[in-house]
Design brief:
Elements (H helix, E strand, L loop, with lengths): L8 H10 L1 H21 L4 E8 L6 H5 L17 H11 L2 H11 L1 H4 L9 H12 E5 L5 E7 L2 H56 L6 H18 L2 H49 L7 E4 L12 H39 L1
Antiparallel strand pairs: 1-3, 1-4, 2-3
Helix pairs in contact: 2-11, 5-8, 8-10, 9-10
């Protein structure tokens, strides 16, 4: 063949046809070996569920909302990207994997010796490879678990989305308990401040100071009457009472203002404590299940036909490249021999 002929399609087909014996032998051998090997690969089945995250799972915010409609506090509102990513983090958490490991004794099932170095890492890696969590184009979350046993794959998928409620509620409850205890300490502090404030108010009331504004108005009116009547005794008594009011009045006013502010803060703290307590004592589903998982009746791996086809094609291409390479070497060797003979 000439060099300019080697790279057109006809010459290449001619080259293959002339060596069809080699191609047939290698491709048939590859077909048989790849088919046999594919039969040795253990079949795997996959069970899949599709869920949506809610906008919020706080019962107190949803049920006790007294303001105008808020989409975020709607029980039916679907999550945004942030809430969806948060739920995916829960599904990928070690807690969920540990739950599956414990219930299904996965270390023994996968024949992994945890006493050996790297055993724990290998176990988590195996589970991670079998557990696929991904966000769909529509914003939902796809939860897939693969296993050699279709029933086990189904059971593990059901448990994964069920334990999502347990894990999420447990994490939220832990945070709520911490917040509740902080609020309780804050409320105790407020109550102590109110008690001290009340004691101070009672001490001032012993001096006859009860309502600065009303008493000041009444004393001023009575003093004017006493002056008009020329009642010196009444004037002296009222002047003394007005001096007492001037002395203790500002302090009483400040204490009463503190009492009002403390009462508002106390009421707000109690309300937040009740909200936290309601959320702690209530467990609600933290997801919307769109597609329930089902027991797979068809394996998803291995695809034996694809394995065989790809193997044969690869064998064919490798054979073609090797034969072309050998042909090129032979051609150069022939040219060298010819040139030597001419000389």
């Amino acid at each position: 063949m000439e060099n300019n002929e080697k790279y057109n399609a006809f010459s290449l087909l001619k080259f293959i046809w002339e060596r069809k014996k080699w191609f047939l032998i290698i491709c048939i051998t590859t077909f048989i070996v790849s088919a046999a090997c594919s039969l040795l690969v253990r079949a795997r089945y996959r069970s899949t569920a599709v869920i949506y995250a809610p906008r919020t799972s706080s019962v107190a915010k949803i049920l006790l909302n007294e303001q105008n409609y808020n989409e975020r506090l709607d029980m039916r509102a679907l999550a945004t990207v942030d809430e969806t990513e948060q739920m995916m983090a829960y599904l990928n958490s070690v807690s969920l994997k540990d739950s599956l490991i414990t219930k299904y004794d996965l270390a023994k099932y996968y024949d992994i010796d945890l006493s050996k170095k790297g055993g724990q890492t290998k176990l988590y890696k195996t589970i991670t490879n079998n557990l696929v969590i991904k966000r769909t184009d529509l914003g939902s979350i796809s939860v897939s678990i693969a296993d050699w046993d279709p029933q086990r794959a189904y059971n593990m998928t059901v448990d994964a989305i069920r334990w999502l409620d347990t894990i999420k509620n447990a994490v939220d409850r832990e945070r709520l308990e911490a917040a509740y205890n902080d609020l309780k300490r804050q409320l105790d502090s407020i109550n102590k401040e109110i008690a001290v404030n009340d004691d101070s108010i009672r001490e001032l009331m012993k001096h006859g100071v009860f309502n600065v504004e009303r008493q000041s108005e009444r004393y001023t009116q009575q003093y004017a009457i006493a002056v008009a009547q020329g009642n010196t005794a009444a004037m002296n008594r009222l002047r003394s009472e007005m001096d007492t009011l001037a002395k203790y009045g500002p302090t009483l006013t400040a204490l009463l203002e503190n009492e009002f502010n403390f009462s508002k803060y106390q009421s707000l703290t109690k309300q937040k404590m009740l909200d936290a307590q309601l959320d702690m004592n209530t467990s609600v589903p933290v997801k919307f299940v769109i597609d329930k998982p089902f027991k797979a009746d068809k394996k998803f791996y291995p695809k034996r036909s694809i394995i065989v086809i790809v193997s044969v094609l690869c064998a064919f291409l490798i054979t073609l490249i090797v034969l072309l390479f050998i042909d090129k070497i032979d051609e150069k060797s022939t040219k060298s021999s010819t040139e030597s003979d001419k000389q």
